[in-house]
């Protein structure tokens, strides 16, 4: 998209396709998280950065190399398990021996309802962000996808509250880092610390994790495309609040039909591959 300098309608169509494929893939292969957040984030970040044709191959090689390095680091635990054997004790949790496959996920009505909710949400948030001329409209879209629940998950607004409050506090932390105008090496250290904290906390408390995720994301954005720090910080808060509010409205709208469906089933959820 970025190489072809795609028009806005083409970008939107691509986003809707990414959401659909991402949710179906997550539901089929039991991916975590069960939402298309990483697919959407990667698509939007790449699409909004211009890529000259002569730079396409080097950028692709960097992406592939980075992905390969990440995979090797992830699989290093497998090698360590083989080395320590039973001496690992409680260091590792038990891993499933076979992948969790749900081949009938594409026939699941709940998966398609989730896709519809995500598509409506990103269109509303993205359209409003463009209307008010926010600096980075894609962040409002990402906020919606980060908050909306995956198929068959409880429809709760707590995640939206965590995201808005956590982002606001994370912006305050980022201000303490960026406003003094630190050196590049300090920013790289902040990115490393932010990544570590995010990985440790993201599965435990979403709001707390955003205290690290927000400085991480904004510091990377500032390094890649330096802008006035106050503008960067204000835009982040506004974009996150906009996306969070849109997600809350969709969650509340879907909560009633979800409860009625649950009552009709007697409180039981049908199997995904039924």
From TrEMBL:
Q: Which keywords does this chain's UniProt record carry?
A: Membrane, Transmembrane, Transmembrane helix
Integral membrane bound transporter domain mapped to chain residues: 124-250
Main localization of the protein described in the UniProt heading: membrane
- Protein localization: Membrane
Q: Which residues form the signal peptide?
A: none
Membrane association type: Multi-pass membrane protein
- State the coiled-coil residue ranges: none
Name of the protein described by the UniProt record: FUSC family protein
TM region positions: 36-53, 60-80, 122-148, 209-229, 241-258
């Amino acid at each position: 998209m970025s190489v072809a300098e795609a028009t806005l309608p083409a970008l939107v169509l691509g986003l809707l396709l990414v959401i659909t494929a991402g949710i179906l893939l997550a539901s089929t292969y039991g991916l975590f998280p069960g939402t298309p957040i990483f697919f959407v984030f990667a698509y939007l970040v790449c699409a909004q950065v211009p890529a000259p044709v002569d730079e396409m191959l080097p950028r692709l090689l960097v992406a592939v190399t980075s992905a390969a390095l990440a995979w090797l680091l992830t699989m290093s635990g497998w090698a360590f398990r083989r080395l320590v054997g039973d001496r690992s004790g409680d260091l590792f949790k038990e891993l499933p021996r076979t992948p969790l496959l749900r081949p009938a996920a594409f026939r699941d009505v709940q998966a398609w309802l989730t896709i519809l909710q995500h598509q409506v949400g990103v269109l509303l948030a993205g359209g409003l962000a463009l209307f008010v001329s926010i600096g980075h409209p894609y962040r409002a879209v990402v906020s919606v996808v980060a908050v909306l629940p995956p198929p068959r998950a409880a429809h709760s607004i707590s995640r939206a509250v965590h995201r808005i409050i956590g982002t606001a506090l994370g912006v305050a932390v980022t201000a303490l880092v960026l406003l003094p105008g630190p050196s590049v090496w300090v920013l790289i250290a902040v990115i490393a610390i932010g990544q570590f904290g995010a990985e440790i906390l993201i599965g435990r408390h979403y709001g707390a994790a955003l205290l690290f995720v927000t400085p991480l994301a904004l510091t990377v954005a500032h390094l890649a495309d330096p802008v006035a720090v106050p503008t960067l910080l204000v835009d982040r808060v506004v974009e996150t609040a906009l996306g969070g509010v849109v997600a809350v409205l969709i969650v509340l709208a879907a909560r009633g039909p979800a409860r009625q469906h649950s009552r009709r089933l007697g409180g039981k959820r049908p199997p995904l591959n039924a």
